[in-house]
Amino acid sequence: MIRTDPSGVAFSHFDAERRAKRPTTHRRRAVSTSKSPKSFPDHRSAAAPGGTILAMLRNATVRARRPEEVDECVAMLELVHAADGYPSRLPEDPRRWLTPADTVGAWVAADPGGLSGHVALHRPTGDAESSWVCTTAGLPPEATALVARLFVAPRARGMGVGVALLRAVVREASARELRAALAVTDGDRAAMALYERCGWQHVGKTPWSWSGGGSIVLHCYLASD
After folding, report:
1. pLDDT at residue 222 is higher than 80
2. 16-222 CATH, one of 3.40.50.10740, 3.40.630.30, 3.40.1080.10, 3.30.70.20
């Protein structure tokens, strides 16, 4: 983990003359107010061999997902679905859902307790949803990276994991000379609030019907430059 240098030690200050006059039997010990080393605030990027570490949290690291971690991501997804209803329909094959052919890359937040978050970048494939996102964002498909599969384990809520994942994946898109964009359903207000806190632009919305039935409102967000 990245740590700051220990802060300076501050002692109680007494006038030397007064201290000399004080009876030695009652001499007060200097009290240190030094603090133990603290971590940097959340979301700082960090260099690492191989460039695999994208960001450091107080207790977690954002890095590239490893192939052997997909099953753990599936287990985390099931917990998220049970807690929040994301995704709205749990896929029949969650492993395949997390590893589609259009994946540019996938990243996780990892802490001492295991994986605590996940996000991916996908290429637009010409399907109706990705085409709508590109058109609404005003981007050609070849210059667009779709943020997808963003979720945080229930045990890690409120720790800045979602913000760190989102900022890290935007940096990854920029490194590939791509602009990040995404679609989110109207019911996912917590996610929409997260995007707006991170400076994303709400660029459009539209009624949307699922192929299996049902309709929603779909919102498009575009990462800031």
Report:
1. yes
2. 3.40.630.30
State how far Cα 74 lies from the chain centre.
17
CA distances from 225 to 14, 70, 178 (A): 54, 31, 10
Task: Dump pLDDT digits (tens) for 131-149.
Answer: 999 999 999 999 999 999 9
Q: Cα–Cα distance between 197 and 203 in angstroms, integer?
A: 15
pLDDT of residue 88: 84
Radius of gyration of the chain (CA): 24
**Two tokens at 42?**
């959340």
Q: What b/e readout covers 71-90, taking b as 16+ CB neighbours within 10 angstroms?
A: ebbbebbeebbeebebbeee
3-class DSSP state for residue 51? helix
Write out the H or E segment, with its range, that includes residue 152.
strand 144-152
**82-123 pLDDT, tens per residue?**
998 899 889 999 999 999 999 999 999 999 999 999 999 999
Q: How many residues are listed for the chain in this entry?
A: 225
Are 216 and 185 contacting, i.e. CB atoms less than 8 angstroms apart?
A: yes
